[in-house]
Amino acid sequence: MLTFVKEIADPKYAEQKYTTTWFDMFRIKDGKITEHWDPALKQ
After folding, report:
1. From which domain of life does this come (predicted)?
2. Digit-coded pLDDT (tens) for 4-37
3. Closest CA to 25 of 39, 12, 15, 36
């Protein structure tokens, strides 16, 4: 799993940004990535 802080433009208020903790999670089999998950952004 990888995590990091990301600043993103708010879709409702284009002049504003919000900060979120982003992640990517992987399942590895036989030394290869077989699955990947990450979060969704505000809509």
Report:
1. Bacteria
2. 998 989 888 989 999 988 899 999 999 999 999 9
3. 36
- How far CA 37 is from CA of 2, 31, 32, in Å, comes to 11, 17, 15
The separation between CA 18 and the C-alpha centre of its own chain, rounded to angstroms, equals 13
User: Which one-letter amino acid corresponds to residue 5?
Assistant: V
Give the helix/strand (H/E) hosting 4: strand 2-9
What is the 3-class SS of 18-43, one letter each residue? EEEEEEEEEEEECCEEEEEECCCCCC
Burial profile 11-27: b = 16 or more Cβ within 10 angstroms, e = fewer: eeeeeeeeeeeeeeeee
pTM of the model: 0.56
